[in-house]
Amino acid sequence: MELIFLPHQADQKSLKSYYHRAIAESKELYIVSAYLTNWDIEEKLGTHCEEFMMVVGEDFGLTRKAACESVLKWLPIRYKTQLFAAEGIQGFHPKAMFWRETDGKCYALIGSSNLSVAAFSDNHEINGFTAISEESFQQAKAWVLGLEPPQSAVVDTKWLEGYVEAARQPKPSKKGTNGAAGENDDGGSYAVEYVLPLPTDLEMLDSILRARRTAMRAFKANRDDLEKLFRDAAGAARWSPNKNLAFYDSLRELWSMDGGSRFQAKGWEIKGKHGDHRELSRSLVRVLDAPGVERDLVVVREINRMSDIVLETRGSLFTEMLCQFFPSVYHVANSPIKGWLRASGLVRPRGLSEGDKYIYAARHLRTALRRTKGYPAKNLAELDALLWYAEDARANG
């Protein structure tokens, strides 16, 4: 292990040089810091970097908006939604960076330095740089990916508008308040208000949620058969129009409005009948088989892949399957979601891929449910039903 002592000694590499190396050479890069007050890295993230994630703490309002804006400006388009604030984590104090270089070797930089000017120059700090094993890298990667929403929040323009910086020295703040906006229990303040629909008619609210939960139970009863249908199609060595139609007929029997398991209204049957169901099945099986902490990455990759081959069912069918199989973390891509994003003032960064747009919405929905104490919908599948109700209510005046 190489030790980096600060203030910087003449015979040592600077701490920043290790960041430059990781940024220039990494194939995968993960950065965590208890707070972020400065980001003046000029080295561009290499095009060979396939995975990136950065999580910063916001306890006591120490993280600075300007530094977050510098990171967002620095990040290439494909990673504009990969900066997170650990607002839902009590006591977030790590200072570390883990990366895999293009030759496959893995490294870690761990120590006492946060991402601040003083921590890289004047403070008395100690950090260690070392090569790590594949097993250790996978453990570190899983730990960092486990910090994704709802444990954290996407740092974007809307988040920065509501985030409250500390004026001077850190000091404990009041305990968090209920509702969609308030203060984090561990001291970081935020004021982003998510607009979640709530029918005032309690009888109507109960009816909506009861119907959605009934549909989820109906799906669960056929889940094993549905999964086998998708796995058989995904693994088929040969595929033909007849097999495609047979799959379509089997899917309609197992997942239908008549059977009570469908979330969506009619319409998919016409558009989806002649889609390539083997390709869709391959994407879904890859998501089903992905480790939980890596599932968002796989979802992005597969939606983008289906977009590239112009598979229309990647929206209506694929995202409902995601919502049905993983109701706590994925939603159905539909017009109510777009309306909700607009109503909450959330503007996705320009240039995002289709997969990144989907995950951007999913992460904000997870954060909204975490923040809104006592909200009747307990997962994204139930929230979907209330969003549909709200859109219908607006449409009907």
UniProtKB/TrEMBL annotation:
Gene3D superfamilies: Endonuclease Chain A (3.30.870.10). This is Phospholipase D family protein. It comes from Metapseudomonas boanensis. The lineage of its organism: Bacteria, Pseudomonadati, Pseudomonadota, Gammaproteobacteria, Pseudomonadales.
